[in-house]
Structure prediction request, 249 residues.
Amino acid sequence: MLKILLTVSACFSLIQTDDFAGRILSDSYATPDEFPYAVSIKVRGQHTCGGAIIDYRWVLTAASCFARSEVRSPNQILVMAGTIDLNGMGGSLHSVDKLFVHQNYTKQFQADVQGDIALLRLAKRFSYDSNIQPIKLGTVYDGAKAVVVGWGSESNEYPVASQILKSVKMMVIPGDAACQTDATRVCAAAQTGTGTCMGDSGAPLVDVDSGKLLGIFSLGVQRGCGLGLADIFTKVEPYAKWIDYVKTI
Prediction:
């Protein structure tokens, strides 16, 4: 088990995550059915972001994954589910027929990303089993012990996706001048040497106690990964009504 940092550095820079930012740095490899809600989102066949299954045809992820116009076409997107192996062994690939980026998604500057949330609708429903399951939405709170899972890069020097799903423990912390939060964003910190980075945009932040989805990874640090500095996640609860509405379209 990884030790959780209760404090973070008071000063750091943030970058937007639409260029494959965000990775899991840890030694905790997932077991096949440990995180059945976790998916890899592939654009033109390459792992681009993480996401979470929330219903039979719906995956929740970050809008920043699709910030570039050339990756906004659903026919370029596949969702890999039911496996911890990035090559898809034992899992399944699912076509996407609709991409919904939140209407408030903006990037005013590097540290100010709003509405960083998106939904993918599958062409066909998931078939639930022990390796493919939805996750319920939860309410985030300061001090929550959480886990983030993803296939992000394992090295600052070599930004190549992990071949096996990994997890890292984090703690939700109050926002401050270094990690600015608001009604839709929350900060979480991990132990130095672990954390998120390239390839983990959209990765689910899950409450250890309730098993519910608290947020999705949005912003990481500019100076490198695994420095023990806080990351910003998009809270899911404030977007519950938007999610419900989109699912009726």
Observations:
- The chain has one helix and 16 strands.
